[in-house]
Amino acid sequence: TPLDRIRNFSIIAHIDHGKSTLADRLIQVTGGLSEREMSAQVLDNMEIERERGITIKAQTVRLDYKGHVLNLMDTPGHVDFAYEVSRSLAACEGALLVVDAAQGVEAQTLANVYQSIEHDHEIVPVINKIDLPAAEPDKVKAEIEEVIGLDASHAVLSSAKSGIGITEVLDAIVERIPAPKGDASAPLKAMLVDSWYDPYLGVVILVRVIDGTLRKGQNVRFMQAGTEHLVDRVGCFRPKIEQLTELGPGEIGFITAQIKEVQQARVGDTLTDAKKPAREALPGFKEVQPVVFCGLFPVDAADFEKLRESIGKLRLNDASFSFEMETSAALGFGFRCGFLGLLHLEIIQERLTREYDLDLITTAPSVVYQIELTHGGGYIELHNPADMPEPNKIESISEPWIEATIYVPDEYLGSVLKLCQDRRGVQKNLTYVGGRAQATYELPLNEVVFDFYDRLKSISRGYASFDYHQIGYREGDLVKMSILVNEEPVDALSMIVHRGTAETRGRGMCERLKELIPRHLFKIPIQAAIGGKVIARETIAALRKDVTAKCYGGDITRKRKLLEKQKKGKLKMREYGSVQIPQEAFIAALRMG
Ligand code: GTP
């Protein structure tokens, strides 16, 4: 396809403003799918993604419209996947900004628009849901101009649901979004935008060709990985697969090259011709590394092999999570896994539970600490609080810090600032745009990974948006806090905390565990301790024997029911010494409330 006939774009939208519905309409109107095929939303294709309203794997669709080729690039929508988003955006020249005509501009949209502007995108405002009685397109136009600073006079008015304004959107894409630039005679340069594992095709690689041509049968070199592969398929999604013989400059499509593992196809890598390579790789490549680690253990020890297999399968499709075997005194065999963030962790955990039918215990998530050993013993990286060296062997501990940008409407600013303060944040900047504040904070990653995002959303009623990047390691006064249940340390609950917040955290943990652990026939002390020193304590009172006896004494069926219930419950509990701790306790205890 000649360059001037290509348009590459993504869609920016706040959750529920109609991104998926609009994408489906664009596909339908340009003839990609029939009405019946449309009934299942095409772009969000995983159940979990749909339920959580986020897209994890980028998908792209090629549309034909009035002699043009339009490539719609879907982007993942969560901070954990910020790097993937940046590569998807780098593959486009423009974006549709979809805003709900009744809701107006939301904070999250703002953060995404700024990213898109940073990539020099041409942004086409689309005011959607104009069919709603509460729609106020003029007010929303004014808001787009005031709050974002974009000219909204030519905004397209649409109803993705009723099919209004869809061809206008397509026309706007063709007319307003610039064609890509590229040099067909230069050596091949293509950006690896995404990769995933397909059971039939093997690893599928999504590419955006910058210069040169990518052909079936060509030997390509992955410049960052330093590997070479023979391209055996070239094609695009409509959204069904269509095979092609080549992709020219400016084009987006996929290739397969008999690659077995997604780890070999890293997002941001540059593909070039092995025989006639480009001199330099494309800028912006970043090795994504897991930042949050936790242990995953089967509730039933007999499930260990099944867990190993299932994790292996998930890993096939996700280069950004890592795992290695771990043994725990209390939990037996399991895996230490690394994730891009807490949401990433939750998604993997949920998939293991749901798709692979595993009951899991997740230990306290932890970031990676750098420990300097005494007597010139060098540095170690600590992925697991259980491996923390004795205090006398530690010279210093450093923890990763991030710079966070938070957008929030004025009315919630006070609570947001307090939250940042409570999490040891250092304010760097505070500005106002429209009725919204933009706060920049430096924060220890450790204070953010647990539940910062959830807290932020709840104190701002969903309006705050949050984006971050890592800014390196800083020394901190950090200590290991152990949790003792009935005098026994529970290694899965030990965590590294800042000395200044240890007591509050310890007290919170003990209080929550008191709620989460059922009563036993004896009294159970729950303690948080640093070294040998107890800093918080709660006690679970003993169950009075006669209470059970009285309640259930005479009634055999009720007694049996109770026993069965207990048996079932047991499957989801772990025994620590003589105490049973329910599975949910491990993660729930960490939520700081
Ligand atoms: P996420 O996938 O959760 O990010 O949401 P989204 O932005 O993709 O929104 P989606 O397309 O799933 O639409 C959200 C809801 O709005 C759905 O119930 C749609 O049916 C509805 N919707 C989408 N477009 C319109 C529209 O033009 N008018 C009306 N009335 N409803 C719409």
From TrEMBL:
Keywords: Cell membrane, Elongation factor, GTP-binding, Hydrolase, Membrane, Nucleotide-binding, Protein biosynthesis. Gene3D superfamilies: 3.30.70.240, Elongation factor 4, C-terminal domain, Elongation Factor G (Translational Gtpase), domain 3, P-loop containing nucleotide triphosphate hydrolases, Translation factors. GO terms for cellular component: plasma membrane. Residues 4-181 form the Tr-type G domain. It is a peripheral membrane protein. Its EC number is 3.6.5.n1. It is found in: Cell membrane. PROSITE patterns: G_TR_1, G_TR_2. GO terms for biological process: positive regulation of translation. InterPro entries: EF-4, EFG_III/V, EFG_V-like, EFTu-like_2, G_TR_CS, LepA_C_sf, LepA_CTD, LepA_IV. One of its GO terms (molecular function) is GTP binding. GTP binds at residues 16-21, 128-131. It comes from the Bacteria. It is an enzyme of class 3 (hydrolase). NCBIfam families: lepA, small_GTP. PANTHER family: TRANSLATION FACTOR GUF1 HOMOLOG, CHLOROPLASTIC, TRANSLATION FACTOR GUF1-RELATED. Required for accurate and efficient protein synthesis under certain stress conditions. May act as a fidelity factor of the translation reaction, by catalyzing a one-codon backward translocation of tRNAs on improperly translocated ribosomes. Back-translocation proceeds from a post-translocation (POST) complex to a pre-translocation (PRE) complex, thus giving elongation factor G a second chance to translocate the tRNAs correctly. Binds to ribosomes in a GTP-dependent manner. Belongs to the TRAFAC class translation factor GTPase superfamily. Classic translation factor GTPase family. LepA subfamily. Belongs to the GTP-binding elongation factor family. LepA subfamily. This is Elongation factor 4. It comes from Sphingomonas lenta. The gene is lepA.
